[in-house]
Design brief:
single chain, about 575 residues, alpha+beta, nine-stranded antiparallel sheet, six-stranded antiparallel sheet, 19 strands, elongated
Length: about 575
């Protein structure tokens, strides 16, 4: 195959890769009066119920056959109360209307970079209300949103009770200190004096999948907002993301070894964790859309159903869950266990990505600026791979020098392919040149660069983090287009400096399209990623210049910009 054809294929494949990436690729006591007098608030029952009904997708009570039934709530007349619990990381307000959170606010993360911006709230209006308890396939009645009695509460824990003629349900939620985790304990007592009762306790967490942003290159670069959520669950040893949200049905269920299930955005995740393993576990997920939602918006949810419990008359059975609602921070996720750290998508090269993330943390600990930490990390990786890059440059230079002889062979043996191949291989052997020597070292670096890319794409560490001056958010695209344009200029310089195996001017002009393409792609990437690619490209240009002019590392250390002895 002619080198011109190979180069054309390389350009087409590169463009195809980016288009594919952006279009496809892209877990009976009374409350003391003193304890609840301050946070607890009496509210108008009808008004509060109307607001909550509008903001939630109800969980249907079901019979053993799965048919929905109308359920009377014997406690619906109880006064509505709220109670706030908190720790160092989150503040959560619970209501007796459903025993669910009104809000779940992260103390260290805000909605925008602006001063006074409110904290991120992981209770999403218009979505399935988090931590709503349901009993699937139950042979007793339980309302979709029961009115609980608040019977105990303190700074980090609430205990709710609901009772009917058949069952007494206690629902306790307690925040774990220094964590985004809450532990949920559910006890169900058969008080009806009848035969044994059966049900599968279920908890869910909901969010919103948002429409794609407009703009982009011919529509290919459209992306969902970073707060857009999708269902995710960990089943049989791997994290599964339901990316095709618009095609999901209202109710989907997958049985197996479920470790967690919920919803996620790029930087945050809210999941339910079953603390009991065994047969009968299932992950549920789904998506719905109401008429008042914009086109492309869906209410999504994910949750866990425990194995069916059997409650003999007079006995009590317990179900234990945990919930994690917070950032995709590696250490916080690891602390929960159950492979929740696998919720961070590092791609195929996770084994490389994790050390890179720790390196990023190390440089941040020195400089206290994630933008500068990215620069230092990129320089470190580039220097680490410097010997491989030099080897690749030498091979490309040697191939360039042999190009005139290769063209002579192509003209001389154009009718004898076997002879052409023999003479070509003999020429490579005589000059000790490996025709793949320029490509193989580059392929060896590919996993490292992809891992670095994935780390910076998913890193919560960059969320709303400033760089310098007018750059306030490393997780947002460059609003001034400065870094993408600089990247395009340095890529053009790299094309000029890199040895080419062909002197064909048409091919060289075609290759100059690549900087323009990359510049357009970078307009829509997070600033932190563009900084990494820009610094990497600047160092590549520097390496190429040094090699072309025979300048070594020690020359730079000694302050020399010209080599004492030019390389051959």
């Amino acid at each position: 195959m002619k080198s011109e054809h190979r180069m054309l294929i390389a350009v087409v494949l590169s463009a195809g890769f980016f288009l594919l990436w952006y279009t496809v690729l892209n877990p009976q006591k009374d409350v003391p009066e003193r304890a609840i007098s301050q946070p607890a608030q009496e509210q108008t029952t009808a008004a509060a119920q109307a607001v909550d009904d509008a903001a939630s997708e109800p969980l249907s009570a079901k019979t053993k056959t799965g048919a929905a039934i109308a359920v009377y709530d014997p406690q619906k007349g109880l006064p509505l109360k709220t109670w706030t619990i908190s720790n160092d990381l989150v503040e959560v307000e619970f209501t007796t209307d459903g025993g669910v959170p009104n809000y779940w606010r992260t103390k260290n993360y805000t909605k925008t970079v602006d001063a006074g911006s409110p904290p991120i709230d992981l209770v999403i209006e218009g979505a399935v209300v988090p931590l709503t308890l349901a009993f699937e396939n139950a042979d007793f009645s339980f309302p979709e949103r029961p009115r609980y009695e608040l019977i105990e509460a303190d700074e980090s824990r609430v205990l709710f009770k609901w009772r009917s003629d058949d069952v007494e349900v206690l629902k306790e939620i307690s925040l774990k200190p220094g964590s985004y985790q809450a532990d949920i304990s559910v006890s169900v007592k058969n008080v009806g004096g009848k035969e044994a009762l059966r049900a599968s306790p279920t908890l869910k967490w909901g969010g919103l999948h948002l429409p794609f942003k407009g703009g982009g290159l011919l529509g290919f670069m459209k992306q969902p907002p970073i707060e857009s959520m999708t269902p995710v669950y960990f089943l049989d040893g791997k994290a599964i993301r339901e990316a095709k949200v618009l095609e999901l049905g209202r109710q989907n269920e997958t049985a197996g070894a479920v470790y967690w299930a919920g919803v996620e955005s790029r930087y945050f995740i809210s999941v339910i964790v079953p603390r009991q393993q065994g047969d009968g576990l299932s992950a549920g997920y789904g998506a719905t859309r109401t008429s008042d939602m914009p086109e492309g918006q869906m209410a999504v949810w994910g949750g866990v159903s425990l194995p069916k419990i059997v409650i003999p008359s007079g006995d009590t059975e317990n179900a234990v869950f945990s919930a994690y609602a917070g950032p995709k921070d590696l250490e916080n996720l690891k602390a929960v266990g159950v492979n929740l750290d696998k919720a961070i998508d590092y791609g195929w090269f996770t084994i490389i990505a994790i050390p890179i993330l720790y390196l990023l943390h190390f440089f941040y600990s020195i400089i206290n600026n994630y933008g500068v930490a990215i620069v230092l990390l990129t320089i470190f990786v580039k220097l680490l791979l410097h010997p491989i890059n030099v080897k690749s440059l030498k091979s490309m230079k040697a191939m360039q020098q042999l190009q005139p002889r290769l063209k002579e062979f192509q003209a001389k043996y154009k009718d004898d392919k076997q002879k052409l191949n023999a003479e070509t291989m003999q020429l490579f052997k005589a000059h000790k040149v490996n025709p793949m020597g320029g490509c193989l070292p580059m392929l060896a670096q590919f996993p490292i660069y992809i891992a670095l890319y994935k780390v910076l794409w998913n890193s919560i560490e960059l969320f709303h983090q400033p760089f310098f001056w007018f750059y306030k958010d490393l997780s947002a695209p460059d609003p001034y287009y400065i870094t993408p344009i600089l990247l395009g200029l340095f890529m053009a310089a790299q094309q000029k400096l890199t040895p080419s195996a062909s002197a064909d001017p048409t091919q060289q002009k075609m290759m100059m399209i690549m900087p323009v393409m990359f510049t357009v792609f970078m307009l829509f990437l997070p600033l932190g990623l563009v900084v990494y690619i820009l610094v990497n490209t600047v160092m590549s240009v520097t390496q190429q210049y040094m090699y072309n002019h025979g300048i070594g590392i020690m020359d730079l250390v000694r302050g020399r910009w010209k080599a004492a002895h030019r390389k051959a």
